[in-house]
Design a protein that fits this description.
The complex is a heterodimer. Chain A is an alpha+beta fold. Chain A has 2 domains: about 55-85 and about 305-340; about 85-300. Chain A contains 9 helices and 9 strands. Chain A has helices at about 1-10, 55-80, 100-105, 140-145, 150-155, 180-185, 210-215, 245-255, 310-335, and strands spanning about 85-90, 110-120, 125-135, 190-195, 200, 200-205, 260-270, 275-285, 295-300. The two termini of chain A are about 40 Å apart. In chain B, about 50% of the residues lie in helices and about 20% in strands. In chain B, the strands form 6 sheets. In chain B, strands 14-33-32-31-15-27-30-29-28 form a 9-stranded mixed β-sheet, with helices on both faces. Chain B has a 9-stranded antiparallel β-sheet with strand order 17-16-26-25-24-23-22-21-20. Classes of the chains: A alpha+beta, B alpha+beta. The interface between A and B is large, with 108 and 123 residues. Chain B: It is a multi-pass membrane protein. Chain B: This is Phospholipid-transporting ATPase. Chain B: It catalyses: ATP + H2O + phospholipidSide 1 = ADP + phosphate + phospholipidSide 2. Chain B: Belongs to the cation transport ATPase (P-type) (TC 3.A.3) family. Type IV subfamily.
Chain lengths: ~350, ~1050
Amino acid sequence: FIFDFFNARLHFGCSRMQMYPLEMEGNSNPKTTNKPKYSKFTQQELPACKPLLTPEIVIAAFALIGALFVPIGLASLHASRQVVELVHRYDASCVPVDDKVGFIQNSRTDKTCTVTMTVPKYMKSPIHVYYLIDGFYQNHRRYVRSRSDKQLRYKSAAHLTSDCVPEGDTADHAPIVPCGLVAWSLFNDTYTVRVNGVVTQVNKKDIAWKSDKNNKFGKNIYPSNFQKGRLIGGATLNESIPLSEQEDLIVWMRTAALPTFRKLYGRIEKDINANDNVTVVIQNNYNTYSFGGSKALVLSTASWIGGKNNFIGIAYLTIGGLCLSLAMGFLVLYMVKRRNFGDPSNLSWNR
Amino acid sequence: MQRFVYINDESCRDSYRDNRVSNTKYTLWNFLPKNLLEQFRRFMNQYFLLIACLQLWPTITPVSPATTWGPLAIIFIVSASKEAWDDYNRYLSDKKVNERRIWVVKDGIRRQIKARGIHVGNIVWLHENDEIPCDLVLIGTSDPQGICYVETAALDGETDLKTRIIPSICADLSSEQLGKIKGVVECPNPDNDIRRFDANMRLFPPIIDNEKCPLTINNTLLQSCYLRYTEWACGVAIYTGNETKSGMSRGTAEPKLTAADSMIDKLTVAIFIFQIAVVLLLGLAGNIWKDSHGCKLWYLMYPAERPWYDFLVIPLRFELLCSIMIPISIKVTLDLAKGVYAKFIDCDDQMFDPETNTPAHSANTAISEDLGQVEYILSDKTGTLTENRMIFRRCYISGVLYGDKTGDALKDARLLNAVSSKDPDVVKFLMVMALCNTVVPIKSNDGTISYKAQSQDEEALVNAASNLNMLLTSKDSSGIAEICFNGSKFYYEVLDVLEFTSDRKRMSIVVKEVKSGKFLLLTKGADEAIFPRSCPGEQTKTYLEAVEMYSHLGLRTLCLGCRDLEEDEYKEWSKKFQDASCSLDNREHKIAEVCNSLEQGIHILGITAIEDRLQDGVPETIKLLRKAGINVWMLTGDKQTTAIQIGLLCNLITPESKGQLLSINGKTEDDILQSLERALTIMKTALERKDLAFVLDGWALEIILKRSLESFTKLAMMSRTAICCRMTPLQKAQLVGILKSSGSLTLAIGDGGNDVRMIQEANVGVGISGREGLQAARAADYSIGKFKFLRRLILVHGRYSYNRTAFISQYSFYKSLLICFIQILFSFSSGLSGTSIFNSISLMAYNVFYTSLPVMTIIFDKDISEATVLRYPQILLYSQAGRLLNRSTFAEWFGRSLYHAFVVFLITINAYADEKSDMEELSMVALSGCIWLQAFVVTLDTNSFTCPQITLIWGNFVAFYMINLILSAVPTLQMHTVMWHLCNQPSYWITMALIVAAGMGPVLALRYLRNVYRPSAIDVLQQIEQTDGHAQAPGNLESSTGTYLDYLLTDLRRNKSSIHQPLLSDSASSR
């Protein structure tokens, strides 16, 4: 790209004889003129349009932006409000004792916990089930780079664990598949959902990106040496299922950019009516207690704009409103304080 | 140090180098190391190399090392391939020169060899129109008198033919003998002085002549000149290859740094300091966060034992993250832009001079911005402001002012009568005009005679004499000059030429009248050089008055004189002259002394007055430039009165009542200093009311520089105009130096060899490829055909270049800061760990591909049209004062990038929160936000949209999506399918629109308010352009020059005393 440009510069369409011809007599010949070839390009005379920021244009532009933004904002807000969302934070309520860290780290305690929610509005399927974690830095530099994408993709690359420190190899130098902190800290709470006491299937198929399943996680790669070390981070993996089918892992490995994030747990493919009772039995295994994070269960429908997010709608309404008021303000200013546009008397040549 | 060259002696061939000419900077082997070394001399490159090396440490690098190595490599490859291409072309032209076939005589046999095979001491045989392959001492020519003609245009740019003569010792050698002679030439070591060659030559048996024969530059044939009008010539190689005089004078000029460049460097340093501060702060905060909070995050598995350098890791990571704050591409982008500006200058057909067939040319492609910031123009007079086409107009002979009424002496009936009646005074006067010169008459086949002269004045005099029937018909090499007067022929033998130098200010010849055997000294020169040497009792007063009067008319005067010599006196003097000519050291001074002893008791014959017309368009150009706020000074070697007249004619100084000319003058040193102080006081009090200027001469300047430099600098800073006369080339350069050292941007313009030093010293050197040759044009950064093109060069090209560079450089900082601020903001939500929000490919491509092309479109941008600029030249103040690139404009861009970073980041993380908060997606959203914003920023700051601009701005936009959609198809990349996902989401496009509206809305509103309610002059002019619609065409601005000049000239002639006298009313003393 840059080379093309460079070359274009060298042959700038301006052909001309050598600047200092040694044969000075050559100059007297009227046929060989050194006059540069005329082209609009080299003479910088290309036709140009010169829009100015005249009051008319600017006021019209702001009014137009305002006129466009307000309806879009209303539509987005409407779409966001259509979404029915149930958020239930359970990290505190699911631990009955004061020593929460000790509780969660003890592998023998029963960590089953039941939460009940009432659905305020009719929820149309598919209903997304998310887990929400707050205060978890999946974007931390030490964490986000501790993975080996090659190992996940190619069978022959199982030994490529150098990026995965400190969770690359086992104590006896066998490569961990999948290696790295990201996989090691895999979320391991599980949810069983009952609607009005009836067990409802949470479909965990196709919760990951199709492209991730097809291209990023190998179909012939099976977990090995995973969670076999001294410290157990999160969930274990079934060693008989290839990585491309371990959708929870794939979802988890698509790291979040912010310390508060939701990840898809599964989908309920059944409508839930208003005032239905949703009871969720949670296996509360995952440790967010030692770093003061929180966990929540989210059930949500979706609209064209995605999940419930009022930000875009509000931002559009704000900006649209501001633009309209700016247009109004400029209009008033234009009426009150008329300026002679392009008045030479405005020219001052003071340094 | 001496060099002994043994002629035709193979045994000493190895002591000096062969004739291989090499202008190349590199060889195939040292190209890489040498070029790399050269490039790494730049601070920026060193910095980026350090960053790139740090990135090799995987613990600290936030992104793949390719993000810096890639662009760094591209930048290096671009600069290196440019260098390599230039060098390869030099190599090719060298090869052509080196492979040329040249005839060489060895052992009496002529053989043809390649030019590079010539060794010192070889005898080289040249034919007519051959290019001379190395520096030779002439030993034989086809001409029986032993002269030959060379054209030295390639060496000094002088287009006239020069005569070269064989040393007397070789005068009688036959061509067979020439091939076999042996001898030794004793000469100085190679130097670059093309006007000096002080050497001796001695021949060995069998040609027994043990006398040392002096050699001068007139006995040499220098490399790269051409042999003309001579069937053959042969010479001994003295200096070969790169050691020749032309090879030694090829120097590589120091690269000039423009004011804009140094401003950019300052900003770079400021950003560097800011960056270090940010890095230290974030590094410290990061370490604290890690110790207080990070350790609790079990999923990070911080080890209990940490290496000693652990506290460095986070600051270094931030250093790498922030390294993009300094845009890696800025140098390349600016270099490309500057190259285009230079091409625009080269291709400007409005700066093409059809008369001399010369287009404008920018030899230095890097300093176009300086043209737009020029504060002082220092101009030569002769050939720069004037045409340097000398026409003999008037003369004063024995009390009669010829040409007084008609304005042309050649048409004055009284003079024609005097010629036909053979008035002895007039005849003698004409004889001096025809003879006392170094003109070469060339007879063409049809019998007409043309003259080749080194000095325009001499040519004018000889031509005038021939029009008055005193025809110089031929000059042969034995020194016999033939003169034809009224049909009868006279012969004179030219014995000696006492050459003209700028110190002597006169030249003389000694001739012997063949018929009578009488010896005569004919002389011509400046009045102050001749009058003190006139014989006592001569009435110099009337001549002085005539000189005064002529110079008031702006004419160049020469005083002619002659003296009869006794034969004995001449013989005695001739011996002394010979000795002086042979001396090896201090030759010039000795010769001048000897000459002076003969040039005494001169009988003054009369005064010639030669007109040098002003160049077309000069007064208008100077008026325009002065209106544009540029101070124009005239530096000339000419007389004060002539200079003042020319100054009046070309609008440089304003006549009395509106203007005042302060003369700094005096008989003694103290007088001069007093008048300087007085001028300074007047300047301080009256500057507002009057157009003040000062005038001083070379002598006064010398004393002032020695005694009172400080007050002179003060005066120079205040004075908009100055006329400095009788300046030597060195003094011209000194004046430039004074202005430069006080921080002003200077432009020197000249046409002759005497301006070269000033041109090289100034920030911008402009050469006029004029009649005095191309020497100035070659030394200059820009060469133009006429002074009037300076107007376009400065107001159009210089101004646009400055505006464009100001935008490009600040925009480059803006886009780098923008992406860097986003990284910093992101680091607050990633635990201050130094994670990069953008992936490596995006970071690399952002600087190199996504943002460099749209900004290049600004090289087509014109804020206001050329016609408007020429109509309101005051607008140059903006670029002159650096209003578009300074701290406050940069602060504006800085603030804008900070604001935009907040807009992009906050909108992105809020719109892509919760379940959408995927690292790859978020990063692409933020990146596309930056791309959208920058496209709109460029659009808003573009003043005129042409096709390439629209194509590049929006084409780049399309290209961004194309590239990312294609990259999304690559399964191995992390961003696989990300862009596809995004483009399918309505919320992505809605977010982009939000970013643009929130980012550009306030910018647009502020811009609008400023444009309408506090407009800058540029805004007003844009509005005027728009409302007027039909701005005046540039052609209309050029008033009819001829009539204006005629008006001025006639007006001046009519009131010559009344205008001139009050002008000098405040001078300390009048001469």
